[in-house]
Amino acid sequence: MGLWQFMAPTANDLGMEVTALVDERRDPLRSTEGAAVYLGELYEECNSWFLALEAYNSGPGRVRRLLIR
Question: How far is C-alpha 35 from the geometric centre of its chain's CA atoms?
Fold first, then answer.
């Protein structure tokens, strides 16, 4: 949903409000701030912008599983 295509659980983890009345995933400023924080967290975990972007796109769990193999 929204500019950065956040799933509701991820948006909630980043402090965005997602309810029947308010969905901050649709707020360009709030969702962009969330995307920057999330990408920063993924970079810290992956130590690679390439892997951080892939984790953003496909989910961090998938990237973790691929790296373990």
Answer: 6
pTM, full prediction? 0.89
DSSP class of residue 22 equals -
Helix (H, G, I), strand (E, B) or coil at 69: coil
Give the 3-state secondary structure percentages of the chain, helix then strand then coil, rounded to 5: 70, 5, 30
Per-residue pLDDT tens digits for 21-47 = 999 999 999 999 999 999 999 999 999
H-only helix segments in the chain: 8-13, 28-46, 49-58, 60-68
Q: 60 vs 17, 31, 49, 55, CA distance in Å?
A: 22, 19, 13, 4
Structure tokens at 29: 């400023």
**Do you know the residue count of the chain?**
69
